[in-house]
């Protein structure tokens, strides 16, 4: 029998050491928390057997605070490339068993390398994050490492999709890098995101709070709007990253992948003709409208628990990816507030940078009035939405199902913001103000002078309603392209998107715009 070459034996030994991570004890601690190891996560994320690791032998450099007495191969992050549904992706997965997955200069080097490779090769980039942030012992070298990553997150934004899956306590830079990416997925009871943790907060402000209440899934998917989705388990989170990518192209010069559908393009849904209540103040559920129109079972809602008055999500219509934006009249009557503006804006821009047509469903009484909203800058936030729809050059189709009053008409993909095809349902009400509000302002003196002001207001409001609270006035001026029966909506959208597939709408040259933030 030929003896193995000792150099090959050495390589195998080194490989085995790299796989050990931070050692058996720390790995057992990780497992005891119900968490997968960083390698198991990569295997779960990618198509089986497709992962190729890069730079597994890197260790941290420098001996600040005696770091060199404990070096680990890979330095707390696994990087490389593989495939998802046969398409190349680049990935990094932080290893919490090595210095809590914290970012060192060399870890940053590894991460930046796969980010650069991803962009050079037009492939998505996925971060599996489980990290205490900047490695304290390294000081400014780890901070500089984060800056290198943030710069790439920003410069590569809109070039290739970037997805962050949060799989542990993610502090400082481990929360900031994801905030620059297109999608953040968290895991219930396992992921936390904060810039400074409970200990630091207690020391600085005296406030006492636990990690879950500070930066758990309920906070970031329901209150802050930082994260897009919360899943029950790591497995589900990784599966969601794969699923999300199925709607996106690999880069900004490709089109999203087409998925054959069994749902006929000509399908008309009779129920839609009865979904809008005759009483304009009664709500209905816009989510149901969307589900009935898109290819069956394809609506992937994002940020479902934050700013519920607005709806965003990806879907397929006729097999093609589309971005859905809309209002939910069953939540705050579909009014547009600051959070709703931010939510819709970011999504419109994501669709635009990845060549995903946008279909907008409008039912909103307008912007939310109130001192708190005004003082918090609803003008600035609403302006973002105007900006986003105006700059988006992808095919845009708009359906006004019911209310489109004032600012809501204008900002929600209105025709003269550059929307390609605008349809209204017969239930559409398109006007500057609702009937009562308009009558109060236009006929203030007439109402005050009347013997019965309430009856006078009612009469004048009725006259206003008859004139404006329907789609025909808007259609007569060309502000909507057609009025359609609700059941026709699916075939009409499919036909419009097909006619717009070769849309060419170059923007004037500029360095970049100056979106209000
Ligand atoms: C070095 C760290 C570390 C850090 C954790 N560890 N954070 N090592 N630098 N930042 C190490 C611990 O010493 C420990 O090592 C191991 O990781 C696991 O940590 P535990 O505390 O035992 O785990 P846990 O109880 O789960 O708590 C995790 C944690 C907590 C919530 C992340 O460790 C924590 O609060 N760390 C500090 C977070 C922080 O403030 N980071 C700096 C952010 S500033 P052993 O050897 O025992 O396994 C930043 C700047 C970016 O990132 C700039 C933004 C613009």
Short note summarizing the structure:
The chain has helices at 6-20, 24-32, 38-45, 105-120, 140-155, 173-179, 198-205, 211-215, 217-222, 234-245, 286-293, 338-353, 371-375, 378-391, 407-411, 435-442, 444-449, 453-468, 471-476, 489-499, and strands at residues 52-54, 77-84, 87-94, 125-129, 162-166, 169-171, 183-187, 192-194, 229-231, 300-302, 310-317, 320-327, 358-364, 396-405, 421-424, 429-431, 482-483. It contains 20 helices and 17 strands.
Mean pLDDT: 95
Low-confidence stretches: none
Domain count: the total is: 3
Total of DSSP H or I helical runs spanning 4+ residues: 20
Give me the CATH superfamily of the largest domain.
2-enoyl-CoA Hydratase, Chain A, domain 1
In CATH terms, what is the architecture of the largest domain?
Answer: Alpha-Beta Complex
CATH topology of the largest domain: 2-enoyl-CoA Hydratase, Chain A, domain 1
Bound molecules: hexanoyl-coenzyme A
Q: Based on DSSP secondary structure assignment, what is the total number of beta strands? A: 17
Distance from N terminus to C terminus (CA atoms, Å) equals: 70 Å
What Rg do the Cα atoms give? 27 Å
Output the structural class. Answer: alpha/beta
Beta-strand fraction estimate: 15-25%
Q: Characterize the main sheet.
A: 8 strands, mixed
Helical residues, percent: 25-40%
Principal-axis shape: elongated
CATH C-level of the largest domain:
Alpha Beta
């Amino acid at each position: 029998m030929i003896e193995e070459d000792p150099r090959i034996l050495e390589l195998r030994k080194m490989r085995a050491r790299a796989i050990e991570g931070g050692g058996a004890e720390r790995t057992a601690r990780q497992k005891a928390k119900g968490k997968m190891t960083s390698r198991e996560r990569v295997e779960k994320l990618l198509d089986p057997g497709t992962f190729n690791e890069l730079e597994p032998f890197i260790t941290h450099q420098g001996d600040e605070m005696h770091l060199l007495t404990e070096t680990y191969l890979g330095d707390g992050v696994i990087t490389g490339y593989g495939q998802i549904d046969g398409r190349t992706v680049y990935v990094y997965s932080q290893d919490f068993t090595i210095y809590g997955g914290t970012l060192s200069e060399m870890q940053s080097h590894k991460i930046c390398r796969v980010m650069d490779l991803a962009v050079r090769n037009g492939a998505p980039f996925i971060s599996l994050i489980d990290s205490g942030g900047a490695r304290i012992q390294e000081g400014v070298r780890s901070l500089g490492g984060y800056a290198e990553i943030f710069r790439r997150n920003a410069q590569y934004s809109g070039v290739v999709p970037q997805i962050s899956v949060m799989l542990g306590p993610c502090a400082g830079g481990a929360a900031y890098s994801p905030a620059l990416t297109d999608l953040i997925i968290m895991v219930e009871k396992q992921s936390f995101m904060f810039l400074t943790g409970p200990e630091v907060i207690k020391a600085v402000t005296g406030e006492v709070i636990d990690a879950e209440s500070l930066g758990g899934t309920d906070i970031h998917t329901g209150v802050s709007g930082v994260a897009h989705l919360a899943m029950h388990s790591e497995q589900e989170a990784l599966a969601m990253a794969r699923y999300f990518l199925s709607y996106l192209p690999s880069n900004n010069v490709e089109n999203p992948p087409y998925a054959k559908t069994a749902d006929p393009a000509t399908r008309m849904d009779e129920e839609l003709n009865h979904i809008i209540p005759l009483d304009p103040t009664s709500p209905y559920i816009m989510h149901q409208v969307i589900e009935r129109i898109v290819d069956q079972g394809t609506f992937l809602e994002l940020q479902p628990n934050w700013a519920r008055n607005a709806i965003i999500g990806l879907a397929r219509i006729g097999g093609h990816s589309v971005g859905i934006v809309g209002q939910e009249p069953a939540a705050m009557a579909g009014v547009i507030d600051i959070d709703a503006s931010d939510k819709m804006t970011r999504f419109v821009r994501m669709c635009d940078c990845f060549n995903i047509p946008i279909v907008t469903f409008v039912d909103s009484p307008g912007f939310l009035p109130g001192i708190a909203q005004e003082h918090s800058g609803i003008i600035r936030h609403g302006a973002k939405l105007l900006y986003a729809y105006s700059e988006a050059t992808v095919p845009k189709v708009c359906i006004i199902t019911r209310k489109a009053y004032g600012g809501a008409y204008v900002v929600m993909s209105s025709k003269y913001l550059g929307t390609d095809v605008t349809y209204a349902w017969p239930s559409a009400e398109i006007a500057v103000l609702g009937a009562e509000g308009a009558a109060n302002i236009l006929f203030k003196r007439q109402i005050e002078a009347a013997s019965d002001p309430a009856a006078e207001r009612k009469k004048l409001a009725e006259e206003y309603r008859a004139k404006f609270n329907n789609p025909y006035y808007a259609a007569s001026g060309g502000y909507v392209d057609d009025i359609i029966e609700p059941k026709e909506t699916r075939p009409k959208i499919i036909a419009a998107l097909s006619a717009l597939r070769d849309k060419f709408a170059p923007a004037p040259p500029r360095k970049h715009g100056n979106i209000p933030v």
